[in-house]
Amino acid sequence: MTSSSVNRKTFANRIDWFTLFLYLLLVGIGLLAVFSVEYKSTDPSFFMPGKSFVKQAIWLGPSLFVGIIILMTDSKFFSSIAFLSYTIAIFLLVITIFAGKDVKGSHSWLGIGGFAFQPGEVAKIFTSLALARFLSMPETNFKTLKDRMIGVGIAMLPALIIILQNETGLALVYFSFFLVMYREGLPNAVLIVGFSLVGLTLGTLLISGKILFIIITVLAVLIGVLIRKTLKRDAVARILILAIWGACILFSQVIVPFAFKKMHGYQVERIYNMLGQEVPDEFRKEPTPGEMEKAKKKDTDYNVRQSKIAIGSGGLWGKGLLNGTSTKNDFVPEQHTDFIFCSIGEQFGFAGSFVLIGLYITLMLRLVHLAERQRSAFSRIYGYCVASILFFHFAINISMTIGLAPVIGITLPFLSYGGSSLLSFSILVFIMLRLDMDRQVMIR
Amino acid sequence: MSLAANPRQYVVRFIFIGIALVMLVRLLFLQLFEDKYKVMANDIAIFRKVMYPPRGVIYDRKGKVLCFNEKVYDLMVTPNEVSKTIDTMQFCNALGIDTATYNKLLQKARFFNGPMRQGVFIQQLSPSQTARFQENAYQFNGFQLLERSIRSYPKPVAGVVLGFIGEVSPGMLKTERFSSYLQGDYVGKDGLELSYEEVLRGQRGVNYLEKDNFNRPRDSYKKGALDTPAISGRSLQLYLDQALQEYGEKLMQNKLGSIVAIDPRTGGILAMVSSPSYDPNLLRGSDRAKNFSDLYSLATKPLFNRAIKAFYNPGSTQKPMTALIGLDVGAITPSFGYPCAGGYYACGRRIACTHSGGGHAANLRLALANSCNSYFCDVYRRSVDLGKFGGVKKGLEDWYEHMFSFGMGHPIGVDIPYEIGGTLFDSNAYNKMYRGVWNSCTNVFIGMGQGELAETPLQMANAMCIIANHGYYYKPHFVRAINNNPKDTVLAPYLEKEVVTHIPDTNYAIVALGMQDVVERGTAKVAQIPGIDICAKTGTVENKANINGVATKLQNHSMFVAFAPRTNPKIAIAVAVENAGYGATWAGPIASLMIEKYLNDTIATNRKALEDRMFKGNVISKYVYILDSAQRAKDRLREMRKMEAQQMADSIEQARRWRQVQFVVDKYYYRKK
């Protein structure tokens, strides 16, 4: 197929309607979810200005408008502005540290004439573009350590600044770029070590010591059986697998319990509370009177406990639309933003949650599919960036509502209430759609 | 760039799907395998609101309201939900209390109901408090208004009959009858409110409401599918005549005693006055406890229903019954006479009679009219010593049975609680008292209503019903109908005719004639009402009391029993005025005025002076106060002894428990270490 034949296709035919459809569907579900948590039977009318779902619907306008503009822009535009926009984004982020509004202790919001936005959200787009541009440059050789360091630098610089803004949750999302860089040739070990550490940490906290010991040992034996030929030949491999097994056991059975014994009672409690878990008896301590006061003031596990109650009470089919007693009556804090998944879990039960998670996974796999069919590396890498960012948001957000991950304030893409969040995710997706329209064109 | 498939894209896809699967497994556990979250969600979000039904209204015989419901609000509080940032000043201003009271009440609620449960903060707010609270209710998290209704009485009459309601006590909760009640529920505590509790209370309803995180009720849960409506209590229609009751209470003011008026045809009680009476409106609302203790501490005991709880020697009012028994067993005939010369000497000492000679006891009618003591002492002795019984002990058994069937010696079964049965001795009791050595002279006084015979005014009135009806009665009762249904099963026991044993009509007729003579030419001429044949009997009852260790003879009790008219009687009445003198001086006029009021609805002008004298008479004896304070001192002493014993028992129990705890600790705790 030549590029001329591609150009003969109509504008509409070149758009990936399936992705667009998934995007609109998710935004629609988001509006419904925000509406349902705010609904009160005493409301005088359905449409009330000032309600979050109305604001969200209004925000959909600019989002789609910007989306259409993007679709009509030249696809080479995005790669050409990549570095410039990245520089501006970094500049904005730095300014925000000093000029940012104080919202719940973080300085990540910038106010421009009565309108507030989070540069950290928007910076994701430009970081994606910059990373894609850098990795796709012909002079970049991602197998060299220097270029790898530059790649990691591009991804981590905004994260560093955002941490300085005291918005750790958002910074965590930038780690999603490791997934992209893995696809582009970062060693396997990075991913395996990363995931294993996360898994081991969560496992230590969520699973009791003895069971975890068994799981780790079984895993070690299984891997040993799978690579038994290598083990026979290679003494280093044998020592390595033993060492990893030993380190895991040491970490989960000795270091963590020891650290918890040394830590203050409220600190241990805090760690468990972030996961919405009760502190196990073995680590429970009698708090000193001073700590008791501290403990009274904060109620960190309240969010997760309420969120788990809301989702857990949904059952298989849920309580039905507008019948969610926990979400409708404000028991879950931040339920129209970070904890929006609760309203789905409560009102539509396991079935609804299954469908929603299915939609997200479909969208991400579709994005990976789109990325893989690009002719130019820039488009492909950018596609992976979009998929990875969505994935991190999705995975961390839903995991924290069901007590699998610590409570980190990041939004659920398309569903959570919030204008700048919706706008930035829309831009992310629409740029990918635009690039995909020109998938046969080499973009540098 | 090669377009060949990169294997790492599959790793990425695998990671996406893998994480999603982990989430789904977790959701599976959360939503399908664990039930506790459903329970927890309901616990936090569903508010069970108890709906109290309106209590049944009580009407008098003419449909006038005696007791109805007024709406009031209780302020409830859930201590832990009261936010620390509450504007205490504003709250206190709205309720008109000071901050110290606020803290005290909050502490109290926390203490009694715990921090998480809703408890009473202030009971029965005044309308202005309610309005001011409601204006700002949204600012006061943790506080809620609970609508309740309280009893209200348009006229301050019949307090002891209607009774009162109050919070169910811990003692009541332990009984089977009230085991389904919850602490804080209101329940009838005396009078009709208690006896007809099940009828009046209705059925509590429950509304399930969704509440939000600030405990504010929002919508009904599941659109009210689980709600049960409150069913209103049923109303009572009484025989009681409000006007007559009010009139009786007015007649009895400044006197101690009681009036019981019964319609003999139905057993329905037309009026029951216990004097001094009190305004039932005092025993409702937030001042109930204070007013109750005030009333309770009065020496004249207004809360004590003298009509059913006080018992007196019947005195001469016993004489018609003595005559009836004498006639029935065949000891005398209506023409039997006794040559009384001012006293009865047959038992070796003089029993005085107020009359002497002149043939005042020449036959039964005359003896009744003149109330000859000697005559009835003789009749009593003849009755029990009758040859056919073969001994006084058998004879007294028969006399006892007659009296028992007249309703003496046991509670008759009126439909208000705590009725007393009075005193009626049988042979066994006398055997115990005199170690088996006694004869008809020993207890000859009971023939004229003194000695070991005591009756409540209700029993006296009921005996009048029996004579009026010529041998039967219906259990005296107040309630004519429930929800206008006179045949309600609850009322079944009162619809049964109680027949008194085998005394022929002619005997009743002759006694009734004698009683008519009492009014027309005997001791109770004062009770005459033109145009109405009244049958009556006066009673003047000697009584003594132990005052400072000295047995002192007190002023006589004034008694009067009557029924009218003689043919086709419509009212039977008993009046007792304590320590007032002759029966004809106080009780007689009161009874006759009551009869006149009931039958004629007005008092004849020539009797206005009598009426006025009754209204104004004050015959409360000073002994009442002396006796009362002596009794209270005795009660206090007894109470103190009881408390000391209780404290001793408690400390022993505590020591025993402590030893047990020590034992467990020693055995299990230290050994483990």
Automatic annotation (TrEMBL), chain A:
Methyltransferase in keyword set: no
Localization, UniProt: Membrane
Membrane topology: Multi-pass membrane protein
Keywords: Cell shape, Membrane, Transmembrane, Transmembrane helix
Residue spans crossing the bilayer: 20-37, 57-74, 81-100, 149-174, 186-205, 211-227, 239-260, 348-369, 381-408, 414-435
Main location: membrane
InterPro entries: Cell_cycle_FtsW-rel_CS, FtsW/RodA
GO cellular component, one term: cell division site
Single biological process term from Gene Ontology: regulation of cell shape
GO terms for MF: lipid-linked peptidoglycan transporter activity
Entry annotated with the keyword Membrane: yes
Domain of life: Bacteria
Protein name: Cell wall polymerase
Organism: Taibaiella soli
Lineage: Bacteria, Pseudomonadati, Bacteroidota, Chitinophagia, Chitinophagales
From TrEMBL, chain B:
Regions that span the bilayer: 12-33
Keyword tRNA processing recorded: no
Domain Penicillin-binding protein dimerisation residue range list: 52-218
Pfam families, per database record: PBP_dimer, Transpeptidase
Keywords: Carboxypeptidase, Cell inner membrane, Cell membrane, Cell shape, Cell wall biogenesis/degradation, Hydrolase, Membrane, Peptidoglycan synthesis, Protease, Transmembrane, Transmembrane helix
Membrane topology according to the record: Single-pass membrane protein
One Gene Ontology molecular-function label: penicillin binding
Chain ranges of the Penicillin-binding protein transpeptidase domain: 257-592
InterPro entries reported for this sequence: Beta-lactam/transpept, Beta-lactam/transpept-like, PBP_dimer, PBP_dimer_sf, PCN-bd_Tpept, Penicillin-binding_protein_2
Annotated localization: Cell membrane; Membrane
Main location: membrane
One Gene Ontology term, aspect cellular component: plasma membrane
GO biological process entries: cell wall organization; peptidoglycan biosynthetic process; proteolysis; regulation of cell shape
Protein name as annotated: Penicillin-binding protein 2
Gene name per UniProt: mrdA
